[in-house]
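Structure ticket #2291
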Amino acid sequence: MHIQWGEMLQVFGATVAATALLVTLFSVGVRGLGKRSGAGKGEGSTNVSDAGPVLSFVLSFAIVIYGIYLIVAK
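Resolution: structure written out below.
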């Protein structure tokens, strides 16, 4: 059995990068929603300020769906 270490390192690097991107996007979305609510101060917000967190969650969802597609697709 011959292990191709170069390709294994590429897969590892891509996995770490994708995980870091997903966690960062989701964290930005959660933080954006926290700021939007005024951190409990009852301040209102506009719909424009909702675009950043929503975009972060949509991109996170897209990454997860693409990963599931790669696993399930034949």
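Closing remark: The longest helix spans residues 5-36.
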